[in-house]
Amino acid sequence: MSLGRSPGGSRRRRASGFRRIPRVRSILLVLLGFTLSGVVGALSFFWPTITTALGATGHGIQVSAPTPSAVPGSSGATPTTVPTSGSPFTVLLMGSDNDGKFTTSSGAPYFCCAQSLILVRVDPAAGAVTMLSIPRDLWVPIYSASGERRSDGKVSEAFGDAGDGSSGANAEIATIEQDFQVTIDHYVWIGLQGLINLIDEVGGIDIVASHPVMDDNYPYDVAGSTNPYAADRVAVLPGAQHLDGVEALQYVRSRHDDLSSDLGRNVRQQQVLVALRQKLSQLSLGDINNLASALSGEVLTDVPLTQFSLLLGISKDVGSGSIQHVYLTQYSPGTVNGQDVLEPDMSAILAVIHQYFPAS
Amino acid sequence: MSRSRRLLTWTLILVLMAAFGAGVNRYLASGGTTAFAPATKKPAQTNVRLALPGTVYFADDGGLFALTGTHITQLQAEGGGWTQPVLIPGGAGLLAVKVTANYYSDLYELNLSGRVESQLSHDSGKVTATELGADDWLYYPAVGPGNTLYFSYDWPKGNVGDPAQCCYQVDFSIWETTLGAAITRANVQHAAGITQQSWANYYTGGDVSPVPLVGGGLLYVDYEEAYGDTGQLSTPLAGAVESTVVSQIRLDPKPLYNVAGSDGTALTQPQDDCAQPALNPDETEIAMICTPVANGLPSSTESDLVVASFAAATGTLGPLDRIITGTMAASPTWSADGTDLIYLAPEAGDGYFELWYVKDAATSLAPHAKQVTTDLDLDGSAAVWTP
User: Fold this and answer.
1) Residues A43, A88 within the same domain
2) Which residue of B has its CA nearest to A263?
3) Which one of A15, A45, B33, B331 is at 20 to 30 Å from B60 when CA atoms are compared?
4) A1 belongs to a structural domain
5) Do B36 and A201 count as a contact with CB atoms less than 8 A apart?
6) Looking at the structure, do residues A220 and A305 belong to the same domain, yes or no?
């Protein structure tokens, strides 16, 4: 039986229904459409950032609990802790070679040590940041990521012993947590080229160099060099200096003509980090994509993507005058198996660590 | 409204939505929201907030520029490696250093329009690409009475020049010659018309910033080692064993000239960590940069602009008056009449170094700095300020 709906009648009803959309609902629909369109447009722009971030983050800390009595071979993992708003947290910053320019006896890429180790404690409630540099040549027990004591070595070597970046970061964290009795909440690792790219991306950094940094044997092993043993000349003069990425790396890495040796480098590393933070404090939405591209494959972190802006935002609330710079100097030069090392006075070092990095 | 009209309206709205999404994408991609890209301008394009009397010659990003009033003229293009311009006495021209990055630097004479008149040094000595130690750095030119030229030169150095200090020692010592004499390593090494005036402390960076006095004598900056446990500086932390590098401004009086190992007289103390001296024309005031020292280490985030009275006849320096603090000041220069100062310091907010001005720097009870340039990113060396 016909329902008596002619095509024309159906069209009328549809047209009539179309017409009956309330004006308010129509306006909301249009606004929603524009919003969705804008979000899709923005998402397509930030897609490289999202993919880079997904690749760089989520490498959670998986090390044994930082107790001196950790059971060798234990595989117990400490879950990554996301700092709650207002609570202090500690981040380990690591910088190292990552290009595998050296090979093992079997020809496999050999990832060297963490050239730079800086513990950063952020106390949002107090608006304070503490940066503590750990000399790379301190001779300490080395631990694997699983908490197994391997051997004694330079503290920076834990990273390379593990074989690759992510495992290396975990081994380095395990070693520092065990040896220095500190809890590390997060880590950020960046390669040499990543630091260059990052500083270039923010337009360079500005510092006042306090004394000439001279080097006729600076390792020329980045920026297109194909010879891992090539050398370069460096001369950063005292005074106002605008440094691009390569120059900033030279400034923080050079040590041959500095009688302060690693201490001098540690001071310069913290100085560059503060200058970089100054530039990053101007970060805007449109810069994120380029930063992500610059850091692609050059950064690893366990900081959850959703927390990164929180961490950066917290740090921006702290003026550079609120940053406390601490350098470990409680050691004496020594030689182990022909290597120049720094033999630590661990009781004195732990006193400093406990002072500036109290247990939460 | 007819159906076709409504259909057209909604189609148009859908097209606008799609265009809006694409627009958001393009806006983000265009850099319209970036903070970093447009951070600085070329000097000749920037606005100058404050007109200074006379002309200021300065280096920026490897180029040389002249600031007159509020107008900046380019003398040598950016990227050329130019730095450290100084005035030849009498205002006949400029001396400036040209850096070949990562290898060597040479001294040139230019006229006041920036045209190169002559190359005074030849510091590229390497034959093979890896022979880095054969190259030399020359910086900090200064011309004194009788057209005597002073400069810092990285000789002797351990890898080739001083086997006793093999192999990484590369420090500046101050040398003296006559303006116009040929400067090569061979001439330096064999003292052929070139005389060593200071002897660097090894692995410190050495001696820099020579400032000749009209009546003879030489101010300069000496970098040296200060131990945490000798009482020179407070110990950084309990049990500290490391030493650090600090600077002192020294006066090498005329009788000590050419005496090997002479250090002259220290005008400032290690814990003041003072450098970058600028002497006013009548030699009664020294402006300098001093770094606050805390826990045995110089600050890496603050450097103060300091003024002190100076008596050349007795070689004595008055109390240090820190007139600008809480910033990263650098490279002071006196005005021709010796009353006002210009210096470099970061612009608030973005950290880029700009030119700043202090009126009556030595006499004002409340010195106040005014920003001269904007949107630049100056670096490297002190400016030259001519009448």
Assistant:
1) no
2) B242
3) B33
4) no
5) yes
6) yes
Whether A15 is covered by a domain: the verdict is yes
Query: What is the DSSP code (8-state) at residue A266?
Result: H
Among B24, B240, B380, the residue with its CB nearest the CB of A239 is: B380
Q: Do A189 and A207 fall within a single domain?
A: yes
Phi, psi of B78, deg, nearest 5: -60, 155
pLDDT tens digit string along B101-129? 878 999 999 999 999 999 999 998 877 76
Angle, CA of A199, B41 and B359, to the nearest 5°: 105
Residues of B in contact with A202 (CB under 8 A): 36
The pair of three-digit structure tokens given for residue A201, joined into one six-digit string? 């991306």
**What is each CA distance from B60 to B17, B54, B83, in whole angstroms?**
47, 19, 7
- Tens digit of pLDDT for each residue in A219-237? 887 766 667 777 889 999 9
- Give the position of tokens 């340039």: B373
What span, in angstroms and rounded, lies between the C-alpha atoms of A11 and A88?
Answer: 66
A112 and A215 co-located in one domain: yes
Report the candidate in A174, A165, A188, A167 with the shortest Cα–Cα distance to residue A308.
A188
* Closest approach of B31 to chain A, Cα-based (Å): 6
The range of the structural domain enclosing residue A316 comes to 59-356
**Residues A190 and A229 occupy one common structural domain:** yes
pTM: 0.84
On whether ipTM exceeds 0.90, the answer is: no
Domains held by chain A: number: 2
Distance from CA of A1 to the nearest CA of B (A): 30
Angle at B369 (CA atoms; ends B368, B371), nearest 5 degrees: 150
